[in-house]
Design goal:
mainly alpha; elongated; single chain
Length: 246
Amino acid sequence: MSTIVAEPEIDNTQPRIPAAGHHRDVNGGWLRPAVFGAMDGLVSNFALMTGVVGGAVSSSTVILTGLAGLAAGACSMAAGEYTSVASQRELVEAEIEAERIELHRNPHGELAELAQLYIDKGVEPKLAHQVAKQLSSSPERTLAVHAREELGVDPDDLPSPLVAAASSFVCFAAGALLPLLPYLLGATALWPALIVSLVGLFLCGAVVARVTARSWWFSGLRQLVLGGAAAGVTYLLGMLIGGAVG
């Protein structure tokens, strides 16, 4: 007589453990540079404008200062981001090309090196050599595997300097525009720009919580305090300098 083994019942009361790959993007993806670019524009232009207001200047001067700060800051961010990403990409491409040459000159040595990487990660030597050999079935695939394992980069997914520069320009300009909007709409006092800027700082901080382990309200309040402190310092400096040169 055959014995029928009952299948174990699934306990639906226990929390489900997410499958591998269901983690948050720890690199932040596009969200991190976008939010931090906007935050940088907001804080820097808000602080710049409050410093000028502290010097008791006209509204037209505040608007001119805000527009100049927006343009100069956005261009500076775009140029810096382009140079940084382009330099990083050129370095990575040079290392990939060096790896390509080494694979052509010494394929057996590179195969052994790849196998050793897997052995160091805990794979049995025989299996490690089999995996390395199978992954080295074509030149381009071999190069991609070596680049990922040795350099930690994907040759097919390198960052674009133009995209980085454009996104930095747009995000910085958007953030820098917030404190300027009330003046462009006819405000003659600082408090409308202050309210808009503080709300924007809190929202930017709250969005940053999506790529951190902090709660949204903590991140929002932290950014609000830091940005408000920067504006307060520049306002006091504007009062002191304005009074000295006025």
